[in-house]
Design brief:
14 helices, single chain, about 425 residues, about 35% helix, eleven-stranded mixed beta sheet, Rossmann fold, alpha/beta, elongated, Alpha-Beta Plaits, six-stranded parallel beta sheet
C-alpha cells in the first residue's frame, strides 16, 4: 500500500515535534496505521534548530502545500484564526483530510469547518487542540460513548495553573509569578489569553460540544481570569481546606448547559486539586462509569505532537472507510445535535467564597448576615481576621452554601453599599465536584 503523504503547515515548536515523532517512530507508526506515513512537504517561515528536514520539501507558501495534489493529509499548526481558517477550508475543498492543534479555530469556526468536511467526505481531527497530549477528546467521543455525560471540570491552561501553584506554595503575588512564567516561556508577552481565561474557554467550548452533543458556542462561554486573585485569597482557601484552581466547568442541568471558566475553590482532598505546575487535568462524570480523571502535559513540543500524530494515524486508518461510518467530529451525528440552551451566568447555582474588608465595630457582621439571609444565602464557614495594631479594618471571609448567582449578585451589591464595608467584595465560586 502506498505511503500517506503529510503536509505540515508550521515547523515551530509543535510542528517540529510532530516531524520528529513521525520520523523517530516511523516503523511503529506504520505497524499501527497499516502503511507508512511520511511528511513530504511543509510550509514555514522559521524552522526550529536541530530539526531533521531531510526528505521534506519546505517552502514559505502554506497555500502551495494545501493545493499540492500529492498531499493526503494537511496538518495545520500555525494557530490563530486567519489565515488558518482559509487554509483549512481550502484543504477541505481540495478533498484533503485535516489535522489541527488550533483550539481557537475550532471553537470559533468549527461548525462551519465540520459542515464543509461533511459535504466533502473528509475528516477534521483536533485532539491536540485541548489539553495537549491528554487524549481527552478521544475519551469523550469514543471511550465514554455509552454514557450520558453529566458534567466535566478541567484545569486546561498550564500557565494559569503554574501561577496559582507558585502563589500557594511560595506565598508570591500574581504579578511576580506572571513575570517568571513569561521568562520561562510558559506565558506570552501578552498573557491575556492565558490569565484571563480565553484559552481555557476555547477548549471548554470544544469539550462541552462533544460531551453534550450541541453546536460549538464560544460566544456563550462565561470567562473570568485569575489576575485579581491575591495570595491572601490563596492562604484563606488553604485554611478552610480548599485550593484555588482556574477551572473550566460545563454541566448539563434540567434548564440547560452551564459553560463557564473562572477561579474556583476545590476541596484539597480532590485529586484534581493536587494537579500542580503546568500540568493539565480533566475530571469527567458519566452516568454509567462515574468519575474519571485524565491527567498529563497540556502543552509542549512532543506531548502536543503525540496527539497530532495520533490523529494522523486515526485519519490514515479510516481513509478508505465510508464517511458515514466514521466517528462524528462532535461525537454525535451532525443531524442529531441538540439545541439545548446555554445558561446565562446569572442562572448558575454554586457555592461561594466571599472576602470583604469591614470596619471593626460591633454589629457589622449582623448587618452582613442579615442581607445574606434576606437573599436566601446560608453561611457554611467563616474566618474573621482582626485588624493589625493601630488599624480599624478587619477582613471577613465566608463560605456560603449553594445559591443562584443572581441572588448572590444582589447580596454583594447591597453589602458593598454598607458604609462599614471598604472597597469591593472578592467573590470566588466554589465547587465540591462530587455530584
Amino acid at each position: 500500500m502506498k505511503p500517506i503523504k503529510v503536509g505540515l503547515l508550521g515547523l515551530g515548536t509543535v510542528g517540529g515535534g510532530t516531524a520528529n515523532v513521525l520520523s523517530r517512530n516511523a516503523q511503529e507508526i506504520a505497524r499501527r496505521a497499516g502503511r507508512e506515513i511520511r511528511v513530504t512537504h511543509a510550509a514555514a517561515r522559521e524552522v526550529i534548530p536541530a530539526l531533521n528536514t531531510e526528505g521534506i520539501d519546505i517552502c514559505d507558501d502554506a497555500f502551495a502545500v494545501v493545493n499540492n495534489p500529492e498531499i493526503d493529509i494537511v496538518v495545520e499548526l500555525i494557530g490563530g484564526y486567519d489565515p488558518a481558517r482559509q487554509l483549512v477550508l481550502q484543504a477541505i475543498e481540495n478533498g484533503k483530510h485535516v489535522v489541527t492543534a488550533n483550539k481557537a479555530l475550532i471553537a470559533l469556526h468549527g461548525n462551519e469547518i465540520f459542515e464543509a468536511a461533511q459535504k466533502k467526505g473528509v475528516m477534521v481531527a483536533f485532539e491536540a487542540g485541548v489539553a495537549g497530549g491528554i487524549p481527552i477528546i478521544k475519551a469523550l467521543r469514543e471511550g465514554l460513548a455509552a454514557n450520558q455525560i453529566e458534567w466535566l471540570a478541567g484545569i486546561i491552561n498550564g500557565t494559569g495553573n503554574f501561577i496559582l501553584t507558585e502563589m500557594r506554595d511560595k506565598g508570591r503575588d500574581f504579578s511576580d509569578v506572571l513575570a517568571e512564567a513569561q521568562a520561562l516561556g510558559y506565558a506570552e508577552a501578552d498573557p491575556t489569553f492565558d490569565v484571563e481565561g480565553i484559552d481555557a474557554a476555547h477548549k471548554l467550548t470544544i469539550l462541552a460540544s462533544i460531551a453534550f452533543g450541541v453546536p460549538l458556542q464560544f460566544e456563550k462561554t462565561y470567562t473570568e481570569g485569575i489576575s485579581k486573585i491575591t495570595r491572601e485569597d490563596v492562604n484563606y482557601a488553604e485554611q478552610l481546606g480548599y485550593r484555588i484552581k482556574h477551572l473550566g466547568v460545563t454541566r448539563k442541568t434540567e434548564k440547560g448547559i452551564e459553560l463557564r471558566v473562572h477561579p474556583t475553590l476545590i476541596p484539597e482532598r480532590r485529586l484534581i486539586a493536587n494537579v500542580d505546575g503546568v500540568m493539565n487535568a480533566v475530571l469527567v462524570q458519566g452516568d454509567a462509569v462515574g468519575p474519571t480523571l485524565y491527567y498529563g502535559a497540556g502543552a509542549g513540543s512532543e506531548p502536543t505532537a503525540s496527539a497530532v500524530v495520533a490523529d494522523v494515524i486515526d485519519v490514515a486508518r479510516t481513509m478508505t472507510v465510508d464517511p458515514e461510518n466514521r466517528v462524528p467530529h462532535l461525537a454525535f451525528q451532525p443531524n442529531a445535535l441538540s439545541d439545548t440552551p446555554v445558561l446565562a451566568m446569572e442562572q448558575i447555582v454554586t457555592a461561594y467564597y466571599l472576602r470583604m474588608q469591614a470596619v471593626d465595630r460591633p454589629g457589622v457582621l449582623a448587618e452582613v448576615t442579615q442581607i445574606l439571609g434576606e437573599q436566601g444565602i446560608s453561611i457554611e464557614a467563616m474566618i474573621q481576621k482582626e485588624p493589625a495594631e493601630g488599624e480599624s479594618i478587619a477582613s471577613i471571609i465566608m463560605l456560603t452554601q449553594r445559591v443562584v448567582e443572581s441572588q448572590m449578585n444582589e447580596a454583594i451589591r447591597r453589602i458593598e453599599q454598607l458604609d462599614v464595608i471598604e472597597g469591593d467584595i472578592t467573590r470566588i465560586r466554589l465547587e465540591q465536584l462530587d455530584k
